[in-house]
Amino acid sequence: MVIVFAFAWSTVKSRWTGFAGAFIALFCGAALLSACGFLLQSGLLAGISPERYAGASVVVAANQRLAVAESPDSDFGDHVPLDANRLAEIAAVPGVAQAVPDYSFRLTLAGKSGGLVHGEQGSTPYGHGRSSVALGPLSVGAGALPTGRSDVALDRDAAAAGGYAIGDQVRLAVGSRPASYRLTGIVDPPAGSFREPVVLFTDDVAKQLSGKPDQLYTVGVLAAPGVDQDDLADAIEQRLGDSVTTATGDDKGKLEFQDSSTASGLLMAVAGSFGGIAAIVAMFVVAGTLGLSIQQRRREFALLRAVAATPRQVHRMIGAEILIVALAASVPGAMLGYGLVWLVRAAFVRIGVIPADYGLSLWPVPIVVAVVLSVLTARLAGWMSARRAVKIRPVEALGESSVETPQLGPVRTLIGLVLLAGGLVMCAVPVFVAGEVGTIVAASSSLILVIAVALLGPRIVQGALTLVGPVLRRSGGASGYLAAANLTQNSRRVAGAVVPLVLAITIMIVQVSVGAAQVKEAGRQADQGVVADLVVVSSGAGLSPDLVDEIRATPGVRTATAVTRGPATIKYTDLGDGSTQSVMGFAAQGVVATDLASTLDLDVREGDLGGLEDAGTVALSESAAQQTRTGLGRQVELFLGDGTRLTPVVVAIYHNGMGFGDVTLPRGVLLDHLSTRLDDSVLVRAESGVDASALAGTLTKQFAGDVGVVLADRKTMAEAQQAGLDLNRWMNLILLAVLFGYVAINVANSLVMSTTARRREFALLRLVGIGKRQVRRMMLVESVVVIGVALVVSALLCLPPMVGVTVGLSEGATVIPAFSPVTTALTAGGVVLLGLLAIMLPTRRVLRHRPVDAISIRE
Length: 859
Fold this sequence. Notes:
The protein is of the alpha+beta class.
């Protein structure tokens, strides 16, 4: 084995240029896998550093995750409160010096000038009890902490933003009903400034304003001197059981800030899904590059076989070479993932996917995993690529070393045809399964189709060249004739150039088009589903629950529907053995079914929303029903944002889930189980004959004394529904741009390798009288054909998935796919430019050598 590695090392050193392509592919692939690993690790371990809890030894909260057998635990999507009775149990644990209850609730703070006060990242203020200052610990910079029911303290930044000074009357509201409090003190954080404006009340007032006096947000624990905080956290969990969770160190930030937990879940989901796609693409690219490298060494392997080298010996030599190159490339490449993940994080922060102060976990585990995966991928790809080269008989190998064969093996052909047929069938799934499920299947078919084209590439290219070849021979002159001859006789080489281009174009365009189609459909559903004349929304924490009754009593109002939004999680049984449990989170809305059709049209397909009466009933979108394997009249296991478990019966199934949410519950049920008991909007329908603009004027005057109440038209709600999907589309676009960059680098790498390997061919052409200009024209014609075939094949591959997605989302109303013209043009233009440069520049470089010198250079 030592001799094999020594021989392989000498081969790599002496002809390192031949391994440069494989090195680049593995280097970039390891960087991509490492970056995905860092995103996943950051979702698991990183977060936002605590502020108000910075001085607490341990923070105790209710269990925030739903345990699922054989699956990762799932977040409930909101904050699960802790029973106030647990405070005494926590205080009784040995080692606890003090247990401090914390009541946290969102509120709206108005400045003296009338504007609202927000945090640096647009966060709304939160109210707390004065005793929680011990957890920071927070210092009183001026005045004193509140002692009376009408007293309040603000943090220094919030007081400055609102224009308040000690003794001023502060106007704030839990919801939209304002109240005035006297500013008695200004507090400062342990360091820096608060990311969420802090408003302090007396503990009794905070308990009352939270709306849930028998429930705590968290309990902060101060340890006795000499007690280790991790040991104390373990003791608390052992005493209180699985119903609570504890946090120490920076993990306390995940319990303090809800958006930290949300960002963690998002990063894990994104890294998991995108990392899987990236791994498949990386394997695909590495296999193609190594296959091209091994193919270019056919003469060498033929000679080795002719001088009695056995297939096993050649295999071992190739394996040792690949192992050396893989290690040399993947280690620095994986380390580059450090830099790449920071760029992705910066882009996510820029579009608002994660908070600016969300950190990254940079433990080196993803580097090790990326290196191992890269080496295993390279070894497997090298073994598969080398099988034919080492198995054929020596005489056949020498005869075949200079002439390509377009034939494909029967197994490869069969697999390619099966995948091609399977991909096309997946594209047609939305015809039978509408909604998001069909959309996902159709969108996923693009990768299956690309793999099928990769397997059948030489055949497809040979068929395309059969049509193009005669045209080039008749009208292309000498350069066209030579190009046609080269292309026709080297279909495998052309396929090796076409397939990576097809991969880059298809994945980018299909995925971006799916996002565009979803945003368009969500906007359509929201626009057509809101049949109200006016929409009342909040620019602060939310709308008071009693506001809808006041609006409904206003002269000229026919009806008003309050809409409450929150998360919901459904646990269901997977298909198969019927024992595997899975969970899926959905956006939920709460409404009152009475006269709902006057303000909101969910496009009910089965059942009746009139049956939506109590906690025992629920309505689902078609997509949610399909994904959770349920239907009308069936009972579902549903968990609300505060962890409450319900088992409602499905009373209706509707279509417009993308525009309004996939789960619809009675308003009171959802409202009672949110961390903030506030409405998101109120839909208003005017009486017949009442002008909507006149009614808007009346309501505006009526709301003059409220805080954060905004009156808008019906399009506001549609735009709000599109905003979330648009954010997801931007996030996917960033990740796709990274993936496209990786594929583009390796496309250029493959094209350069393929072109540079033809130096002996170019030398021979020049020796028989062909000039440099004619060779360059020949290569220009070839590059145009390669790029043209790639564009045509890509268009044919993109069309079925995009049509399937459109049919699924529009329920067959249209087959014209929604796509992004800008992204499509940039992708196609980038591929054209990349292909021309990657072929023509190496051609010019190779032609600088004298023909006699070039033809004598060894392969």
